Amino acid sequence: MSSQTTPISVFILDREYKFTCEPHERDDLKAAAALLDDRMREIKKAGNLMALERIAVMAALNMADEVVKLKSIDRQRKEQVDQRIRNLADQLDGALGAAMD
Length: 101
Description:
101 residues; 2 strands; elongated
């Protein structure tokens, strides 16, 4: 079963970009474009970079840095949860062993 793609337009720094996506992806694409537009406007407003390409690269680097940091936090959280599960399993094994004695 294939989904039907539909055209969508988004505006980033007042420029229109046209894409096609599946209907269930539309809201996420709009949200991503709005986030990118906000980030690029912040960089442009700071005045250090004026060329669209440089603004886009700086925004992409900032967002990529956030993704890397979030992945690291997620990995650490998973390791903590795994360790907690191992500790609880050890405690349970100990309690069951003591109850059988």
